[in-house]
Amino acid sequence: MTQIEAEGALRAVDILERTLSEEYPQIELWAASAATVAYRHDAATTPRNAEPNPDVIGPLVAFPTNAEEVQAIVRAAAAHGVTVVPRGAGSGLAGGASATDQQLVITTERLNRILEVSPLDEVAVVEPGVINAALNEHLARTGLFYAPDPASFEISSIGGNIATNAGGLRCAKYGVTRESVLALDVVLADGSLVSVGHRSIKGVTGFDLTSLFVGSEGVLGIVVKATLRLRPIPVARQTLTAFFDSTVAGAEGLGAITLSPVRPSVIEFFDTATLTNIDAHSGTGLRDRGAALILIEIDGYGIHEQAADLTAALTRAGARVTVEPDIDAEQLWELRRHGRGFPAGHCFIGEDIAVPKSNLPRVYAAFAALEARFGVHISAVAHAGDGNLHPLLTIAADAGADQSVAPPELHEAATELVRIALALGGTVSGEHGIGTLKRDWAALELTERNLDIHRALKAALDPTHTLNPGKAF
Question: Left if phi > 0, otherwise alpha if psi is -120 to 50, otherwise beta: which for 184?
């Protein structure tokens, strides 16, 4: 075989690996192999009960340590016709970082420096691989904190949070990631580097390109630096529980919080099925206290006055309200983040639909009919302060079946729940993104003209579809 024939037999990704190794030896590369299979998936698409397949190989993976290296890698990939999948910590729940063995994954896990903290400007400048929790640990001594706190905050990266416009528990008061991102440095599909946004809190020069990149799931560019807005750590925090005698009563009781003068930082709602699930998975006794729970955090000055006003409002709505001791509050918040379990021997689909918060009771009221129609079981915990639900739909799996593959009736039930959310003025995804798993649902929400605009933006910034093709829309 001649050299030309040998090169013709190589895959484009293999030639790219050789090129990068020769021209940029300082950049660590992992060849496409069984050792990189973990980089084929994110948290949502990782096989759950399948035996490892020795014939499956993962993608080529690059580990840049600075923006210049990201630029060089992207340029080389584009020149060789290899598509690029940007990846943060891999904690995503929509398949946004899934990859094949024909692709190059650029992981930002080693771009993990906190570059600057300015207490007077109330900003931090960070690289995308910084872990959300690590940033707040670093900030604690300054009296400031970074507000967005997805449930995966201990392991998710700032870059991944930006890619999906992640939300979290504190959204009720502090907003989602977009409200805390002031400026970005982004590597585009041609390897060029652009800076968008402002260090100042206010700024209206040009289009809001920062907001365009936040939530774009890596299809428009790769974030390599972010300027983040910080907030003062509240002088006090307090947790309240409000238990109700039914899911219906609890969902209706949420309106009492909105109509009160108190603006909690966190409002989480648990239906009966979720409380039962948590008790079974975590060995707790929440159902002994009631059939539905609103878990609330208040913060700031006047904490006792806030607690009194909120207690009065919720009591009038039929709740049994308790101001929880700190040690019990800590356990309750841990249960909120990690207490739910997945039933053994079941297939499941998780969603993150959102509706106007006044319509939350109508979504919960729809579960019984869906369960009866499709033979599924539905539970949901909600970020009730902003109307974002996380329904979990399950169905018993056939013996020996791949539990990561949803049977038709489970998918049909999930789709019908999406349609209900859209009919109530809601959305397919409140905070997890679209990725690969929700593209069909996104098509139910976005009109063809809206999709044309998305495609035009993609074509303007990435005409060769180098970055994360097949994701988001």
Answer: beta
Residues 84/191, Cβ–Cβ less than 8 Å:
no
Pairing of strands 123-126, 320-324: unpaired
With contact defined as beta carbons under 8 Å apart, do 128 and 111 qualify? yes
Fold of 114-232: 3.30.465
Q: Which CATH architecture has domain 3-107?
A: 2-Layer Sandwich (3.30)
| 243, two tokens | 């238990």
0.85 surpassed by pTM: yes
Q: To which residue do tokens 């709505």 refer? A: 317
> What is the chain's Cα-based Rg?
23
CA-to-CA distance for 46 and 226, rounded, in angstroms?
29
Which pLDDT band, with edges at 50, 70 and 90, does 50 fall under? low
**Which tokens is 126 given?**
């960070």
Mean predicted confidence (pLDDT) in 257-283: 97
* Model pLDDT for residues 214-238, shown as the tens digit of each residue: 999 999 999 999 999 999 999 999 9
Residue (of 191, 218, 221, 224) closest to 65 by Cα position: 224
Name the E strands within 325-428. Answer: 346-350, 377-383, 388-396
Which residues, in sequence order, are CB contacts of 464 under 8 Å at separation 6+?
A: 78, 189
Residue 376: name the closest of 415, 319, 341 by CA: 415
- Cβ atoms of 282 and 342 within 8 Å: the answer is no
Burial of 339: CB neighbours in 10 Å, binned 0-12, 13-18, 19+: buried
Helix (H) or strand (E) holding 386: none
* Signed CA dihedral, 290, 294, 300, 301: sign only: negative
Alpha-carbon distance of 145 to 293, in angstroms, equals 28
Q: Where in the chain is the domain with CATH 3.30.70.2190?
A: 237-338
